[in-house]
Amino acid sequence: MTAPDLAIPGTEGAEPHFFAPWQVKAFALTVALHEAGLFAWTEWAEALSARIGGAPLPQRDTPEDHATRYYLDWLGALEDLLAAKGLAEADMIGDMALTWQRAARATPHGTPIVYETGQE
Amino acid sequence: MPHDHHDHDDGSHLDDMTARVMALEKLLTDKGLVDPAALDRILDTYETQVGPRNGAEVVARAWTDPDFARWLEQDATAAIHSMGFGGRQGEHLTALFNTPERHNMVVCTLCSCYPWSVLGLPPVWYKSMPYRSRAVSEPRAVLAEFGLTLPEGTAIRVWDSTAEMRYLVIPMRPAGTEGWTAEKLVPLVTRDSMIGTGLALVPDTTGPDAEGQAA
């Protein structure tokens, strides 16, 4: 194990916890679902461990890179857990994401994006 | 002259991750599984109300109240709950008291379990692969990256958190603080000192400038 390739990111300053709004939302959704009693925190930890465990070792990334990697795993773990519990199907999430993207493309800047705009 | 279709220049672009999370949010709220107001409340709680100051208050009280310190050592979950800091994930807490002979350091090698109720949200480095993979195998080298070099006679014990058990390091009380109240001691207790990647600040370094470092 060579230390230079595995430098610990952001040891000196107060880095933000989140680097993008989707990371914030993924975090809050997970806590909300747990608080609503849909899964135990131990189940969540197992799902997250399963995702993180398979991640390759990073090169010398920035704190933002690390946060992005971490929350990608986080979101993947949330989708895994929801699928396992039959609460949200991956295909449906994918279709709805495409609908949001179509809605965004059809919405001028500065105008709220409405989901229905993207429906085919 | 209007275009006959919208393109990226006049429309908005949603990146894949943003769209996916928006889809998840809509799906879960449409199903009634998530209350949008609850999402806002959770973020408000973790971004503004819960933070390392909670843990600092626990540490400062342990430094000044021997009965509380004993309680913390025997049943940290109950002692910390008594101060109003509850574990929202239902986890148990253990307080690890640093001594001149032993320095405690916390990691979660599997994911990122962290004592949120007393320390707020974990820093990026705590969640990063390098910290998770190296804290156990070479703790002294890791501490050096945080600017912390311990005496050779001090053993380092690394504790691996789980979803059920999380740890709060109680750093040693700095010299030169005899007779200080808990309230005056709180700013000396940094977040990193409660994870074990730092020490409590010594009084000379406190002040307007040092507070920024402790944040």
From TrEMBL, chain B:
EC number(s) from the headed UniProt entry: 4.2.1.84
Keyword annotations of the record: Iron, Lyase, Metal-binding
Keyword check for Glycosyltransferase: no
Positions annotated to bind Fe(3+): C108, C111, S112, C113
A Pfam family this chain is assigned to: NHase_alpha
Broad enzyme group: lyase
Domain of life the protein comes from: Bacteria
Nitrile hydratase alpha/Thiocyanate hydrolase gamma domain residues: 16-197
InterPro entries: CN_Hdrase_a/SCN_Hdrase_g_sf, CN_Hdrtase_a/SCN_Hdrlase_g, CN_Hdrtase_asu/SCN_Hdrlase_gsu, Nitrile_hydratase_asu
Molecular function, one GO term: nitrile hydratase activity
Catalytic activity entry: an aliphatic primary amide = an aliphatic nitrile + H2O
NCBIfam families (UniProt xref): nitrile_alph (TIGR01323)
Family as reported in the entry's similarity comment: Belongs to the nitrile hydratase subunit alpha family.
Protein name: nitrile hydratase
Source taxonomy: Bacteria, Pseudomonadati, Pseudomonadota, Alphaproteobacteria, Rhodobacterales
